[in-house]
Specification:
Layout: H1 16-28, H2 32-46, H3 54-79, E1 86-87, E2 94-96, E3 99-101, E4 113-121, E5 126-131, E6 140-147, E7 167-170, E8 181-187, E9 195-197, E10 202-210, E11 220-225, H4 236-260, E12 269-270, E13 274-276, E14 282-290, E15 295-301, E16 308-314, E17 329-331, E18 343-348, E19 357-359, E20 365-373, H5 383-386, E21 387-394, H6 395-400, H7 409-424
Parallel strand pairs: 8-9, 18-19
Antiparallel strand pairs: 1-4, 2-3, 4-10, 5-8, 5-11, 6-7, 6-10, 12-14, 13-14, 14-20, 15-18, 15-21, 16-17, 16-20
Helix pairs in contact: 1-3, 2-3, 2-4, 3-4
Protein name: DUF1214 domain-containing protein
């Protein structure tokens, strides 16, 4: 298995397409016309009920930035001369390749997932060649083929069948060689033992490397056309025009999404667990918080033997804060277990020295997600097992709990430093 460049020295995610996409994004963000459209949308959303709440107003500028970056990155993916995976979605800024890329978010983006997206033509043939670092392999790799592309999200109806992927696999479906390499084909007719069957029209190939520990590394992946098709043109001016056209409906879609997501959660609530389809098969529970300064939420979960579990906090627009600056998410490798193997988390404004503390980053209101993926065979949706406890308590009650795993200030500082180091490994 060979890759473009030296696979021993080239950063896994720093492909030529990635470098081109990021440099173009930074160039287009300086366009005055794009800034004007963004400002108009900001004013529109600031007048909405969510935009007029204290927490919604405080985070709207960042949400607008993330959605703008996300839309422009998707437009760039559509214009690449040859289809290629691009690491786009990531709410945390990254410093690499000689620049700082701001957050590129949409909604509920998982800090433990490495999202890569490629836009394809469904009547053509492709192959994906990849390779795992077997010593630091991700907990799960999900690959899905969907109709359409990210520039034009589907109508907001979470029950519509068109949200089901055309084809989906996980790393458990791959034929992985002794060196960690694998191959997948894509097209209208089966080409190999591991094949994603396509359909006519514009399609999206999405992948997620799920990191249950930030020492794990994303897989190396390249997409190669199998049909002889001349490369397209790459014109930043045309990309800019497309972004100006598509940004308003794109932003309005994602800004409205929290109103319908899990029924529009508000207050201090948690939903029953629900299943997920496609390659993301597993379970998810959502929650909302509306906490006073002296309050906290205690949540105890059972990992049920899933290879990946994660708990993340989000603002009212469903954007996560910078995961390198604050403990706004915890995965299995970052969580201290209880003696019985369950996990107890404390959500609060103030750090009371609980090991599994999740930081509200000063927001009175927000949302959260708990995920279980790569669950053992036979696991079923049982909310009473998956979520053992959810209750609102006072900070004094948190202090009085005798069995919570706790940390010293020095250990907390080490936790936060480990987050920075672990996150930065993605760009090595």
């Amino acid at each position: 298995m060979t890759f473009a460049g030296d696979p021993d020295t080239r950063p896994v995610l720093a492909t030529p397409a990635q470098i081109l996409a990021e440099e173009t994004l930074l160039q287009l963000l300086d366009d005055p016309a794009l800034k004007n459209v963004r400002a108009e949308l900001y004013a529109e959303l600031a007048a909405t009920p969510r935009g007029q709440t204290k927490s919604g107003a405080a985070t709207l500028d960042e949400a607008m930035s993330q959605w703008t970056n996300s839309l422009v990155m998707a437009e760039i993916g559509n214009f690449l001369p040859t289809p290629a995976p691009v690491w786009g979605t990531d709410d945390t800024p990254r410093e690499w390749l000689g620049h700082t890329l701001p957050g590129v978010g949409t909604s509920g983006d998982n800090p433990d997932a490495l999202y890569r997206t490629t836009f394809l033509e469904g009547d053509r043939r492709y192959e994906v060649v990849g390779q795992f670092d077997l010593a630091r392999r991700p907990a799960q790799l999900n690959i899905e083929l969907h109709r359409g592309n990210k520039v034009s999200p589907p109508p907001i109806d979470l029950n519509k069948s068109d949200l089901t992927p055309l084809a989906s696999i996980t790393d458990r479906d791959l034929q992985i060689a002794a060196d960690g390499s694998f191959r997948i084909t894509i097209g209208p007719e089966p080409e190999s033992p591991v094949h994603l069957l396509s359909a006519p029209g514009r399609l999206t190939l999405g992948s997620r490397d799920m990191l249950a520990d930030w020492d794990q590394r994303p897989s190396r992946m390249e997409l190669r056309p199998l049909d002889d098709v001349p490369p397209g043109t790459f014109d930043p001016a045309e990309i800019g025009k497309a972004a100006l056209r598509d940004l308003p409906p794109y932003v309005r879609f994602w800004a409205k999404f929290p109103e319908l997501w899990f029924g529009g959660l508000k207050g201090n609530k948690i939903t029953p667990a629900q299943g997920r389809n496609g390659s993301m098969a597993g379970f998810m529970a959502a929650l909302s918080w509306d906490l006073a300064a002296d309050q906290a939420i205690i949540v105890t979960t059972d990992p049920i033997g899933a290879a990946y579990t994660g708990f993340q906090m989000m603002d009212p627009w469903m954007i996560s804060a910078n995961g390198k600056q604050a403990q706004v998410s915890l995965n299995r490798g970052q969580t201290a277990p209880n003696p019985d193997g369950t996990f107890t988390f404390v959500l609060s404004h103030e750090d009371r020295g609980v090991a599994n503390w999740l930081d509200t980053t000063g927001l009175a209101e927000g949302l959260g997600l708990i995920r279980w993926q790569a669950a053992p065979a036979g696991a079923t949706i049982d909310t009473s097992t998956l979520v053992r406890e959810f209750k609102v308590v006072s900070l004094s009650e948190v202090d009085a709990l005798p069995d919570l795993p706790r940390v010293t200030p020095e250990q907390r500082a080490a936790q936060l430093a480990a987050r920075v180091e672990g996150y930065n490994k993605r760009t090595l």
